[in-house]
């Protein structure tokens, strides 16, 4: 996720170092060291896939005695509750059931019920991981076995588990308790949309983003530990909403070019995107990426090939429109208006929304006072991510009746050293596209 640049820099350094050493020292003196460096570089490349699913292959003897374990023949997965399974071929679905059953029972190595290509196995394993956030003890990595005649055909699988396996009963109790406490509060509400919002606020209030969190990427890391990365946010949201009977799918792909995970949620027959990770800001939960359409999210999010086959999110009824939290003072038009006590990104989005609706198309400026410099930096970072489209622009354009438009803007900040307040001035250029 945020490790790619660091990893690539390390690889470049290793490559240059090898070249320099090879030039200045005799070949025989550096063979052993170069071999070690080469191994390290290989390990670094392997880590590029850590945030997704990693696999390594080993040669196995077909007569080594490994059995098939639990085939999961009794399992009945519906396409609505397990959408990724529905994307698989018949033979892949058989292996899917087998992986789920053996993961549930925490078995290690077993012979596949039918052989799959390495790519088919990766797709099948991904489907299990994406459909079942309750398997929080299962690692994203696995090992497959092949025989010497067909290295690209997997005939055996070894599942890997995190340390929760050794204390699974206690871990399960903690997990169930954490999920149930949120479900109990949400269950008191009347509608699915109200319940979804309750869960969203409960999770963003509890979880903090942490690349080095324990049991990272699992629903356990989010619900129990309250410290995780995007996959943990998404799996926690998926698990709790599904327990409440609200369809919620795990989506993975990229955001700003880096691996990322989020959700789609079904409300009254329509699907909505919800990215809890990007909504969880330092100043509190933002609704910028909550219940938005694919058109909005596509500005910086791209689904993976598998996730792209799941339903598109085009719902608009339950999108969150910016709420006016403070009243603009002064006149409209080209003069600078001030909104006081802006204390969050949502307040900023609301202020921009109402200023644009009030001033309409054209070029104009407005100002607002921010509570501190940290919030200004947060707004600048959000601007770099193009958060403004989902945050206020699309809703403001709709309120103005603009179907096609061009938008450009700039922001500048003036810090008051005595008070710590920042006056943000924003210049907007909004024109209708004919």
Topology:
Layout: H1 4-24, H2 27-46, E1 55-59, H3 83-86, H4 90-104, E2 109-117, H5 118-131, E3 138-146, E4 153-161, H6 168-187, H7 192-206, E5 208-209, H8 219-225, E6 227-228, H9 230-243, E7 248-255, E8 258-267, E9 270-274, H10 276-279, E10 280-281, E11 284-285, E12 290-292, H11 294-297, E13 301-303, E14 338-342, H12 345-359, E15 362-370, H13 373-384, H14 388-399, E16 405-415, E17 422-432
Parallel strand pairs: 1-3, 5-6, 14-15
Antiparallel strand pairs: 2-4, 3-4, 7-8, 7-13, 8-9, 9-12, 10-11, 15-17, 16-17
Describe the structure.
The chain is an alpha+beta fold and 434 residues long. Helix 6 (168-187) packs across helix 7 (192-206). A hairpin with a 2-residue loop joins strand 8 (258-267) and strand 9. The chain has helices at 4-24, 27-46, 83-86, 90-104, 118-131, 168-187, 192-206, 219-225, 230-243, 276-279, 294-297, 345-359, 373-384, 388-399; strands spanning 55-59, 109-117, 138-146, 153-161, 208-209, 227-228, 248-255, 258-267, 270-274, 280-281, 284-285, 290-292, 301-303, 338-342, 362-370, 405-415, 422-432. The strands form 5 sheets. Strands 12-9-8-7-13 form a 5-stranded antiparallel sheet. Strands 1-3-4-2 form a 4-stranded mixed sheet, with helices on one face. Helices cover 41% and strands 24% of the residues. The protein is elongated, with a radius of gyration of 25 Å. The longest helix is centred in the N-terminal third of the chain and has 21 residues, at 4-24. It folds into 4 domains: 4-49; 55-161, no CATH class; 168-309, C8orf32 fold (Roll); 338-432, Translation Initiation Factor IF3 (2-Layer Sandwich). 38% of the residues are buried.
């Amino acid at each position: 996720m945020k490790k790619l640049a660091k990893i690539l820099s390390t690889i470049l350094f290793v490559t240059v170092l090898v070249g320099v050493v090879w030039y200045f020292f005799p070949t025989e003196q550096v063979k052993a060291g170069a071999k070690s460096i080469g191994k390290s570089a290989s390990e670094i490349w392997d880590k590029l896939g850590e945030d997704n699913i990693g696999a390594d292959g080993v040669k196995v003897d077909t007569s080594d005695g490994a059995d098939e374990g639990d085939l999961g023949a009794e399992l009945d997965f519906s396409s609505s509750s397990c959408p990724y399974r529905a994307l698989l071929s018949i033979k892949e679905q058989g292996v899917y059931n087998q992986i789920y059953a053996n993961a549930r029972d925490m078995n290690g190595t077993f012979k596949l019920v039918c052989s799959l290509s390495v790519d088919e196995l990766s797709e099948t394993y991904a489907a299990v991981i994406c459909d079942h956030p309750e398997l929080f003890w299962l690692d994203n990595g696995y090992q497959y076995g092949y025989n010497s005649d067909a290295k690209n055909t997997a005939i055996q699988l070894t599942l890997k588990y995190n340390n929760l396996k050794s204390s699974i009963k206690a871990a399960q109790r903690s997990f169930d308790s954490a999920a149930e406490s949120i479900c109990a509060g949400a269950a008191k509400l009347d509608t699915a949309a109200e319940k979804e919002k309750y869960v969203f606020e409960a999770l963003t209030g509890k979880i903090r983003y942490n690349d080095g969190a324990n049991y990272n990427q699992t629903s356990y890391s989010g619900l129990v530990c309250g410290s995780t990365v995007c996959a943990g946010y998404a799996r926690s949201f998926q698990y709790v909403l599904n327990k409440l009977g609200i369809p919620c799918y795990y989506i993975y792909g990229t955001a700003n070019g880096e691996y990322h995970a989020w959700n789609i949620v079904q409300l009254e027959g329509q699907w909505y995107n919800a990215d809890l990770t990007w909504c969880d800001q330092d100043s509190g939960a933002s609704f910028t990426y909550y219940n938005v359409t694919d058109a909005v999210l596509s500005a910086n999010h791209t689904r993976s090939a598998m996730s792209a086959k799941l339903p598109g999110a085009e719902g608009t009824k339950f999108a969150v429109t910016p709420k006016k939290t403070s009243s603009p003072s002064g006149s409209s038009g080209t003069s600078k208006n001030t909104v006081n006590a802006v204390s969050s990104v949502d307040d900023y989005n609301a202020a921009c929304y109402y200023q644009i609706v009030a001033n309409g198309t054209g070029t104009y400026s407005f100002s607002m006072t921010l509570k501190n410099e940290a919030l200004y930096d947060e707004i600048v970072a959000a601007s770099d991510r193009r958060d403004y489209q989902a945050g206020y622009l699309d809703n403001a354009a709709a309120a103005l009746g603009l179907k096609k438009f061009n938008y450009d803007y700039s922001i500048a900040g003036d810090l008051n050293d005595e008070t710590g307040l920042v006056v943000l001035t924003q210049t907007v250029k909004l024109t209708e596209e004919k």
